[in-house]
């Protein structure tokens, strides 16, 4: 396997959780020349041993400077759901102009064009540009974050209910630390042009998660399918902005049709380890 640890490795979104975790992984794995790219370089002042550059996806001209001299680049998808297609396509354009030799993008499992699921739609059209990139590319199709299940565990055990709209559909959720380790490994070793699925070890339904929480938490937990419209209405009443509520509700639309049940080998291949399971993470979080 080729090792690119001596190449100039760029990471966009470098101040986010995944970006910082990728940089930490790169340093731990011997990367010599890491460039962290962020809108506000001052926020990375605490990270030693890297070069920090300003780069703003809403200002494509800034990306020409940010990507200059970068050999291999990780574009971490932004959080501007519904408004990031042009920005991310422009970032790929800038990477091409800068002569980046290999481009890696954090996508989503089985993206498809759908007006009611902005998250998937954004990734579909960003990938459409990635596939035309004049160089090597890797699309890391990350499943839904498993971290949310752990964050909500105490509240879920207290209420005894998980509301969803996915029917019996399953999702192979994956933890952010596994996503970051996989992205770092891809920056260091990936070649060619390839789609790689990044997932947890197994697909889980909401009923599966409820059963695991109940077993480990010692309290009954029930998964209740309320349907798409009721789920969306509940999110709106809970204070989520319409665009974000539609995006989150859209995930269960994809889960219900089986799009997120794909189990991939991305973590094993690029992180060199088995992905963390929901059961093991909950066991640790709950002290079970």
Q: Roughly what is the average pLDDT, rounded to an integer?
A: 95
> Can you tell me the CATH superfamily of the domain at 8-142 and 174-199 and 262-275?
NAD(P)-binding Rossmann-like Domain
Q: Could you give the order of the helices and strands? A: EHEEHEHEHEHHEHEHEHHHH
> For the record, what CATH class of the domain at 8-142 and 174-199 and 262-275 applies?
Alpha Beta
Strand content: 15-25%
The CATH level-2 architecture of the domain at 8-142 and 174-199 and 262-275 is identified as 3-Layer(aba) Sandwich
General form: globular
Task: Determine the N-to-C terminus distance.
Answer: 40 Å
Main sheet attributes: strand count, strand direction, barrel closure: 7 strands, parallel
The CATH topology of the domain at 8-142 and 174-199 and 262-275, please?
Rossmann fold
User: Rg from C-alpha positions?
Assistant: 19 Å
Number of strands: 9
* Low-pLDDT segments, ≥5 res: none
Number of H/I helices: 12
* Percent range of helical residues: 40-55%
- Report strand order across the widest sheet: 3-2-1-4-5-6-8
Label the structural class.
alpha/beta
